[in-house]
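Example record

The entry below shows one chain as it appears in the dataset: sequence first, then structure tokens.
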Amino acid sequence: SRAQRQLAEDDASGAFSSWLAAFAFTFPNEKFVLQYARIQVELSGLCTNTRIGKVDSELDVEAAQLAVDVNDVEFDCALSWMVEDYYGNRAVGDARANVSQSSAQAAVAIDVDDELRPPLPREVRLTNCAMNLIVQELAFSGGNFASILNAASVAIRKELGRSLNTASCKQATKALTHFS
């Protein structure tokens, strides 16, 4: 019945939401320079508590590919930072970031061995990965440079978003490569 299908979909959605909340990925060591402040910023950390508002997908049977659009992506990151200024002074501390109002698009391609009976996948790979991750909140703590970093937060959020876009596609591609 329709009510039973809805309950099954709700259960699947709840299980997927729970899996996403427990999913964690590392943000590898990223360095960038804030020219106007004459400092080099290094960030690394762990992102968790992923939430997704909507997933749209389209299956292309001929190409053995599933195109996926994910909207309202949100997750939190616990970061460590290190700053070095123009004179070689260094400081370290922690930061927290929230990514929200974001989206991702990708295609999952499946290479099928048609000679096997039944035909089975040889490889699963991520193609056409594009992320639009927006760091909405970023707060630094610890060390004398924390107040400078908080003042430069808008510029750092943009750099962090660019880095997260690249890192997320790389990690998703790597995860699927290890999966297949």
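Notes for this example: The first helix runs from residue 2 to 22. Residues 3-10 have pLDDT under 50 and may be disordered.
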